[in-house]
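Figure S4 source data
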Amino acid sequence: MTSLFFWWAIGGSESAWLFPALYVWVGIFGVMAITQVWTLANFMLTTREAKRLFGLVGAGDILGGIFGGFLSNAVARAFGTESLLLVLAVFLMLCVALVLLIFRQHRWGPDREDQGPVGVDESPRNLLESFRLMLSSKHLTSIATLICVTSIVTTAAGWQFKAIASETIVEKDALAAFFGSFQGYAGIAALAAQLMLTSRLLQRFGVGATLFILPMTLALGSLGVLATGGLVAATFLKGSDKVLRYSIDTSSLQLLYLPVPANIKIQIKSFIDTVIWRLGDGLAGLTLLVFVTYLGFTPGQVSWVNLAFLGLWFVAAAAARRQYLTTLGQRVREHRIDAERMSAPVLDRSTATLLASKLERAETEEILYRLNLFELGYQQASHPSIRGLIRHESPDVRAKALAILNAAGDTTLVDDVEDMLSDKHLPVRTEALLYLTHHSNVDPLARIEELGDFPDFTVRAGVAAFLARPGQAQNLSAARTMLDMMIDEDGAHGRPTRLEAARLIATMPEDFSSQLARLLADPDPEIARLVIEAAGELRERKLVPQLLERLGEPGCRDAAVNALSNFENRILGTLNDYLRDDEMSISNRSELPSVLVAIGTPEALDILTDNLFQGDSFLRFRVISALNKFQQAHPGIKVDNAMIETVLAAEILGHYRSYQALGALRDPLEQDDPAMKAFRESMDKETERIFRLLGVLFPDYDFHAAYIGVHAADSSVRDDTLEFLDTALRPELRGLLLPLVDRGVSVEDRILRADEALGARLDSSEEAIAALMHSGDPWLRSCAAYAIGTLGLGSLEAELDAWEDDPDPLLRETVRQAKAKLAAIKRA
């Protein structure tokens, strides 16, 4: 509408203010239009799409300039200069229609969700708020700094070029012709660079590398101008700016805005691309004024100033690259879905407070439920609210609260518990007697005679505890005998008696290690857990084998890990031997990495690293996961990166090998065949191991979130994750990994890449099955056995015979079924 107004006004009036107003409007509109186009591209494209298409967007900018120049020439000659405003209005209305069409097609695609505003509550409403928001964000500040420095350097370089050209070419017409030729050839070169180089360089090297291309060429040009002061060097300097800034550099800068939250992108991008850019122009003019007018620098000597600012440019580019990667990582973490919801075995402070809240006012059943949760915390928890429950109206609540306070070693209620020995309910009196026996100088036999009936196990536990206590009444031999009797108890009262013996032995001196060893073998997990905790405090090496045997039991696992970690480096040799022992059950061996993490010494880390090449894939996964946890828990202890890189390369090449096998098996086996499903699940585990190894190699980045991101249903999340990987990884690693996780790469392409990477092909299903058979993974060998039976490959039946006695039960069962199928084929 504004261009139509100026066209109408100029045609009907000759007011002096119209042309200055038009000049100002064109200047403002020229800046804002370009900003709006790039902002629209930022909204419409994901990070990966932007890398592919920003080159074309920039090419459209350059082509538009060329087309506009020729069109302006033709229209002005035919219809007059004022008619250009009418042409401009037509093209602007066409742009409005195109924007509406783009938005209508975009919302938001079949697998893309509009995530909405992220990280900022509301948009800035004025320039001051935009400025404050920019300063509050390291990412935005790095972009603004980079753009400001870019503007200063390129403005100064442009002045050098014009000044040196004016000194060299004195004749006005020749100078105009030179500038015209320069603009023409530079425009063509910029278009060629945009079409042929920008997208390729962005996809090959990423935004981190392309940000440095323009300052590097400008540094070379500045050095050339400084050395020669000639027109050739100045032309190279300005040509580098003209060709690269409007192609590669502009696209790279626009990529930096992609992770900015949608609700602030328009305002903040407009602020930086206009105010900050023009601020750079002003600072450049001020700098030239000082150095040229007052200090007398020649155009060639201005290169010293440019080189200083180019140093700042490199620093700003490095900071922008780092903040871009950080912001991408934050976006990836925002979409992280924790698929493994593991309950913590120890109640943390916030959880305990939540459980304790409203205990006194809750119903009896709810109170008992919450108290059971406290008791299930493998380290018993004491809380002020529990102390108040010893006066609760329910005897079950009173007894449970006393038991928890006793186990937690809470000695603040001795006087109150004395009164509870007279409680009319036997369970309460029993718990009170046990509490006082453990935490005060109470003679249980004397109290039993005073107060009446108590269960037999309570009597024996109280007497044993009293006899084991240091003092005149101590009789360790009698206490051992009484404890042995409790351990040997059988029948209806056997479990509560042994359970009380387990509770009791945790408070006994070291002289009762033989009784502790006997209780460690108790099949009851609750009894074993209590004794395991006591064994961890005692730290006698002869108990280590028993503790290792309990590692694989879910009810004892965490207690055994904690107990074994108390031995520290003293048992590392034993742990290493068990970890390498193929005859030990995999359920026990798979928990050993957790023990090494809990020990947390450099020697423990060495053992984890040495076991990265475990043949069993599940055990290898546990070792890799333990390395992740070790690094998070002990960041000061350095991992052997050379070893991690070796294992990572082996895992990636193994994953490519799996794609070769998948390609060979797809035809003989259906996609929904159990073997194919199992094989794909195994490949998913390979991918997870790769990402966990990346997490070990690059601990500053959340690669577990990246693993989840590449499997996300939302394409924008996947693209953000791929861009994060593209920027974070080294080129050689990026080239191997990204084709394996990019959904834009087909299975056929991955198989071809596998053939290139491995230097060999799998041409038949027999070769693919043979590759699976020689895998160290029992799961993959089971897939091979299944395929042998399903496809009737009698030539491989001898391999099945070798697996009939394999330790893995799944493999043995699959072999049995496969041999049955082969036998049926022979009979037919």
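Figure S5 source data
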Amino acid sequence: MNKFAFLLLLGCLLWVPSDLLGQNDYFFPKINSFDEKVPSPEDFLGYAIGEQHTRHDRLVSYMQELARVSERAQYLQLGMTYEYRPLLMLIISDPGNLARLEDIQKDQLKAVIPNNGFTYPTSNPILVNLGYNVHGNEPSSSEAAMLTAYYLVAGEGAEADKFRKEAVVFIDPVINPDGRDRHSNWANSYKGMPPVSDPADREHNEAWPRGRTNHFWFDLNRDWILLVHPESKSKLKWFHQWYPHVVTDFHEMGTNSTYFFEPMKPIGSKDPIMPEENYTTLNELFATYFSKAMNEIGSLYFSKERFDGTYPGYGSSYPDLQGGLALLFEQASSRGHLQESSNGPISFAFTIRNHLVNSLATVRAAVENKSQLYDYQKRFFNSAISRAKADPVKAYVFGDAYDQNRNRAFLDLLLRHKIEVFEVGNDVNQGGKSFKKGSAWMVPTSQAQYRLVQTMFETYAEYRDSVFYDASAWSLANAYGLAYVGVKGNLAKGNAVSMENNKIVVERIARSEYMYLMDWSDYYAPDALNFLQGKGIRTKVAYRGFTVEGNTWPAGTIQIPVANQKLSADMIYGHIMEASSRHNISFTPVNTGYAEAGVDLGSPWFQNLKAPKTLMLLGNGISSYEAGEVWHLLDTRVGLPVTKVEQDRFSRISLNRYNTMILVSGNYSLDSNAIAKISQWVAAGNTLITTRTASDWAIKKKLVKEQLVKAPKDTAKVERKPFALAQEIRGADQVGGTIFEVQMDLTHPLAFGYHSEKLPVYRNSKVFLAPSKSPYSTVAQYTADPHIDGYVSDKNLKLIANSAAVLVSSIGRGRVIMFSDNPNFRGTWYGTNKLFLNALFLGNTVSVPN
């Protein structure tokens, strides 16, 4: 038998451990005794762990069964996913601890209050949160969660008793149930019997969009700080009720890798806001437990070389900003049940066992270092106050006088993170910016969540590293497009803001027999417009400002005339009231069309609006993230249906029923006939919207007569560079997630609703659009000195400066609206969402002047 055949046979042995090795012998070789009244996962499911991918409903049922049969476990439901799968937590501890769980929680909430003199009772257990399966197609961790729960509930012996006595373990077995089931169904459907280890087999190659993401194709491991989705909101609500001392984040990576545990590579920030003790002392301490556990089972591993915790929105970084120790684990994936790798065949059971031993090693390390973790968390929150005292900025003031819903959305985000916010007591004029009492708020820096305040508002230009695993900029005040300023002096505080009083109050709308007007400035104005259009109500948009009945209205105002509608005045009024109540949008009745200044209300400067009938192409090569961001935006914030079509079906689709098409980033495989089909459709008067690399594609395919900015090439000499630094040098040349400033033409319909010509935008690509040759077509352009936050190389900064951010290019009677960036990034960029929604709702009115 040759070496490969032997390894393949070994892999098959690992794949069916219950038959050939014995389930407990393989996963628990040192454990001799389990409580017989508690079923093992194999007993409950009817198959050995690793033999099948366990559906989420079966996994939930097993956790419920553990809580039913044992007084050592309690089942808690945190919420529901978009697809109505439960989000759960299994709480495991000694029955005595569980009986006084409320008292333990009260003590923990005292412990995170800075400088209150609280001392942990020595009898209190350490709080450990084992989190699994945030990426749905990284399934081994949830299987390990069942085995971990089984051991902690049913295991007998000194160590199991000590774990239960000295810890409360919160097991979050599936953070992303929708994605997990998408992948599990795929892997189970294509499982071979016997297993097929060939990487080319369909089992190992999921169909687009794959199971990594949630229902809307978002990466939930980036959502801890953004809080866009119910999975994250539910988890964070629970998190701030407990502030666990240790939190795990179990993942999978490429099949040809081995296993990773922390420490990560050094943090890229020049002055990290996280205490150095966290990512040196504590990480190194816990690493000794992980290496020992892996050595005992002969598994290969590495640390320190990859990944970084710079971005604060991971499951392995956010808890670090709450005085806990967050731990990342990455396991080489079998991507199915058995797959060949450069390290030999890798079985599903093998990947599960590695995560299992490190789950238990985490509990072991936490229990044995309980006092150190207690002390660290106390000092963490105490240091928040001392750092704030040393910070010259004493408060951040922010607000938008024109967009209450965007203000409230940002306030909601701050409050969910337990950041203290107050109304401003007086008008504030600082740094050339003015904030009015009643539409502005302040966030003091001196508070327990000081480090999160820094995260929300501070911007950075200097870094000690130039390669980041994810974004290097995340100042969320910029993401929401809000004006803000750091104030160094003392400010008068107004009322504290809470979830209960963070409301918008809209006065009752009086009835009109003539017309209603809606200001387009509010974030949810597109939702109100879409609702009215869906009821068959004819609407118009003002291309010029005007004053009527004493009120001045800007360009972009939406007009709803009462006359010449298909509906009666009573029905229109009822729909206006309903549209208003959806998001507290204000409508103003008017009784005359005669303007005191500007255009009259029957002027040709009011353009008829068409309800968007939208098509978006999907499929292999297209960014599921960006497509999901568009889908989520239109579904959850606008209520606009979008038809999603695989690009390989495009030739069979009639475009007659659509007036808007969206192409997000991707590699489009459309042939010349398909491109001609799009061009003819646009020329007939329709609107094509492209983002990032789709804009690049539209230019390269000569769909539009625009140009890209290209880097100059020096062909005279090729510079030699060290081979060992190739990855770092190439990585530094990327634009991995940085915030820049653009200047908008506020008179352009795509900028309607904005009141400041300067706008922060997020960029994570190297698509550089040249300003249009038409003087009227560059809607938004990067400024000459555009950098706001995050890392960018000098070379890329020069390319970005003065390049175009949004262009409109005409084809016949239609238009192509091109974004160089992704205005809907991670569902969080409220500030640029409006540009995209303007393209959708107002784009059909735009024609490019000759």
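The longest strand covers residues 778-789. The longest helix spans residues 276-297.
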